[in-house]
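Posted in: Structural Biology > Protein-Ligand Complexes

Title: Requesting predicted complex, nicotinamide-adenine-dinucleotide in pocket

I'd be grateful if someone could produce the 3D structure tokens for the following input. Sequence and ligand are given below.
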Amino acid sequence: MFKDKVVVVTGGTRGIGFSIVESFLKEGAKVVLCGSRQETVDKALKELNELNPDYPVRGIHPRLTDYDEVKKAFDQINDEMGPIDILINNAGISESTPFTDYTLELFQKVIDLNVNAVFNCTRAVIDKMIERGNGVIINTSSMVSIYGQPGGVAYPTSKFAVNGLTISLARELAPKGIRVNAVAPGITKTDMVANLPDEMIEPLINQIPIHRIGEPEDIANAVLFLASDKASYITGVILSVDGLMRS
Ligand code: NAD
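-- Reply #1 --
Done. Output follows.
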């Protein structure tokens, strides 16, 4: 479905991002995964190589919060692999500090990765996408971008901002041939959730009408749909992928 498309996935070393990377590779894309450190990038590349040694995948780790580093890394991809067709802004951190313990530093740390890095990566690809008259950008938001969450206020705040960026850029860039959408996962079985004991997981499952926790592949499937030509008339959408867990 994505033969020879160049796809960049931030936060691609594990969890939802890793599943997105693997799904694009299975569909014939050339993928660049971004991680935060060389070791985690190497580990992800090794895992993918074990799955299929012929996968055209490489890994980078620019500081996503530094525009110049991101721009340099993305320009290098452009020179060596061709123009970036699809950007997936997936890297993010979550946290749950009570507001009475909150500091501006913590607030800024979360906003810096979850919002400013989305800005940086999008800004770094956009001129070439506009020149070519096509491109797809997909952001990983969260169900808390709709309902908020009690605690860790920077996290839902950041995801509300991601939705704002998504919908506003979709409006601005649609006439230039670029679609911008987001997925809003519910609780998804990444490392963090997978390690929770059953007695914590069961009450969570009971709140989900589809009655299971999301798998990273559930989110990857939605991302691939939105990135594909089958979604060519869809832009500015925040697609909930949460088994109807809306609280
Ligand atoms: P994860 O912690 O398993 O993976 C996070 C990814 O982000 C990793 O690849 C990591 O390398 C990258 N990352 C973290 N800090 C970084 C930094 N400073 N610089 C560059 N990269 C960094 O998380 P996940 O659960 O797979 O989450 C992926 C996205 O999905 C996030 O945006 C998260 O907010 C969102 N999300 C997750 C859930 C869930 O239940 N897992 C629910 C809703 C939304």
